[in-house]
Known about the structure:
Blueprint: H1 3-11, E1 19-24, E2 29-34, E3 39-44, H2 49-54, H3 56-75, E4 87-93, E5 108-110, E6 115-122, E7 127-129, H4 132-137, H5 142-154, E8 161-165, E9 168-173, H6 187-196, E10 200-204, E11 211-216, H7 219-235, E12 245-248, E13 251-256, E14 264-265
Antiparallel strand pairs: 1-2, 2-3, 4-6, 5-6, 6-7, 8-9, 9-11, 10-11, 10-12, 12-13, 13-14
Amino acid sequence: MKPIQMKREIEAHLTDENWVISFDREQSTLRVVDKRVDKGVTIQLSNLTEKFESDKEKMLTETVHSIKEGLRLLTAKVQIAGNEKNIFPVVRSTSFPTELEDGRKLIFTEHTAETKIFYAVDQGASYSLIDEGMLEDAAKTVKEIKETGMFNLRSLNNPMKEDNVAGNTFYFIRTDDGYDASRIMNETLLKEMNDKVLGELAIAVPHHDVLIFADIRNETGYDILGQMTFQFFSEGRVPLTALPFMYKDGELEPIFILARKKPKET
Length: 266
């Protein structure tokens, strides 16, 4: 399905008179702005093509819901005070903007050469990223928010599905709770997996809704992980990085994977 066709399908479900819809053919992006606040959300349609083709109705419902929820959050007043139990870290690529269109600056901490960690207040169906203004209103520091988010993250369950391919074992966390990739911040989980694997531990967060652990026991395992990570990356609604990480001595090192060869560090 072409982006322009997807745009028409989505547009038919966005009927609020306060919303202004625009489409950038060159970038394949759909933008919806609430003219009451002059703020909006942008959807990268090219990232959704395969999902629309495989299950159009499901993907259409999810996309429309995401747009409506995003627009709602633009006008909702979110507070940290009283919502401490709902604060979680979220992973984003290093290219993700640290400042919103209206000038508000988001709080974040460094993570790897490929990723940054932002912090959010969970609101059930979605979440709002925490900005400096929200921090000041709550009289909190970035350190306090990080500690709170990490504490809440460790309380989440970590159900995994396992797959064995060519002598290598892959583990997937896909709970659809909004914090699958965030679990890469759970040091206890990473250490447990490191103790569990028989070969080398590799970790991937190709997009925001999946975390992959790989027990690499032969060179074929690297090829499989590289292909798998790129496939997930190309399909994700919020792509993060197509580079997996090797986990050694408590550190994450992004790697390039070359076919039929061991990876070389970036």
